[in-house]
Design a protein that fits this description.
The chain is 34% helix and 25% strand. It is an alpha/beta fold. The strands form 5 sheets. Strands 12-11-8-13-16-17-18-19 form an 8-stranded mixed β-sheet, with helices on both faces. Strands 2-1-3-4-5 form a 5-stranded parallel β-sheet, sandwiched between helices. A hairpin with a 5-residue loop joins β6 and β7. α1 packs parallel to α2, α4 crosses α6 and α5 packs across α8. It is elongated and about 90 Å long. The two termini are 14 Å apart. Bound molecules: ligand PMT.
Length: 401
Amino acid sequence: MKQLSNRHILLGVTGGIAAYKSAELIRRLKDHGADVRVVMTAAAMEFITPLTLQALSGNPVHTTMLDPAAEAGMGHIELARWADLILVAPATADFMARLANGRGDDLLTTLCLATPAAIALAPAMNQGMWRDAATQANVKTLQDRSITLFGPAAGEQACGDIGPGRMLEAEDLARHCAGLFNSRLLDGVQLTITAGPTREAIDPVRYISNHSSGKMGYALASAAADAGAQVTLISGPTNLPCPDRVNRIDVISAADMHGAAMAMMGECQIFIACAAVADYRPNNCADQKIKKDNDSMRIDLVRNPDIVSAVASHSRRPFTIGFAAETQDLLRYARGKLERKNLDMIVANDVANTSIGFNTNDNAVTVLTANGEQNIAQMGKSQLAAQLIQLIAQQFLNVQS
Ligand code: PMT
C-alpha cells in the first residue's frame, strides 16, 4: 500500500520563488497516494497560477475566504476539518511570522488556526532572513506549538547567496509527510546507540573524560523505541534513567564501549554513534593513586579504537550513523568524517555554541549524507531526536528497498 493512501493533505502555498516547486510537490504527494487540496496566498499567485495547481491536484484551488462559490463547495471550516495534515510549502518568513503570532488575516492562516490536523512547514527564504533572530524566535514558537519544520536545506539560493533557506526537494517533502503518519517506521528493527562520555583511567581515582551528559543519545534511544525499534543503548557514565523499552549496557571506557558494540554486530541493523568517545587513553593506569611528588608530570597517551569506524567496516555492517562534534569548520570536518569513517550519515553538531551540544537541553544539527545536507533548527533534544529518527528511518528503508 502507498504510504499516504487515504490521507488528506492540504497544501498551503505562500509567496516565495520556491512556489514553482509546489507543482512537483503535488505530483509526488499524489504518487504516494495522498488526496491533495491546495490553498494559495495572494502573494503565491504572483509566482504560479491557481490553474496549474488545480490541474495537478484535480481539485479546485482555494484562494480567499470571501469567495462565495468556494465556500459553497467546501467552506473554510470544513476544509480545516478535512485535512489530516496541513503542509505549507514554501513557507515564507512572513507567513511563519503571521502564524507564530496567531494571525488569521487570510485563508491559510485561518485554516491553520481552525484545524485539528498536524501542521508542517517547509521554510524557503534568503539565508539572512532565515538566520535573523526574529525568524529564529518564530521558529521556536512554532516548534513549541508542535508544528513540524521540514528543512530548510542549505546551498545556493535563487538570489545568489549560499546558506540555509532552500526549500527541500519535492520527493523529500513527500517522504517526510509519509513519515509523520508512520510513527512506527522501525517496527522490529534492531538498533544500537552509543551515548554519553567515556572515562579513561589514569589511576584508581582519576580519569580523562569530556562534558557529554548522554542527553542526546538517550533522547535518540527513546525516539527509536517510539518508532518501534528494539533498542540497545551502550552508555558511558551518566546520571540519566534508562528510557522505557530500551535495553541499556553500562560501560566506562572506550575499550569497554568498543567491546559492547562489537558484541552487537550480526544482529544490529542500525548503529548510531552519539557517544563522545575519548580518542586517547593513558598508556598505563597506575595501580595506586599517583602522589604529587613533582612540580609537573606527563601522561603517555595511546589511541583508542575508533568504534564507529570498526562498525562501518564490519563484515555484517549495519546502516551506520555517526556524529561530528566540532568547534570550527563544522561542515568540512563533518563531511571528512562521513567519508573517512565510511558512514551512511553524519550528524554535525556545532559544540562551540554553548546553547547546544554538550550538556544542554537543546540541540541544532546538520545531517549530511553522500548526496545532500539538511538543517534541523534549534529545539529540545527530544523533539530533535524524533526528527532525526524519522530521517534515519527513511534513509534506512530506502537502502533496504
Ligand atoms: O551527551 P550530550 O551532553 O547530550 O551531548 C551530545 C553530544 C554533543 C555528545 C553529541 O551530540 C555529539 O556530537 N556526539 C559526538 C561526539 C564526538 O565525540 O564526536 P567526534 O567528532 O569526536 O567523533 C566522531 C564520531 O566518531 C562520533 O560518532 C563518535 O561517537 C565516534 N567515535 C569517536 C572516537 C572513537 N574512538 N570512537 C568513535 O566511535
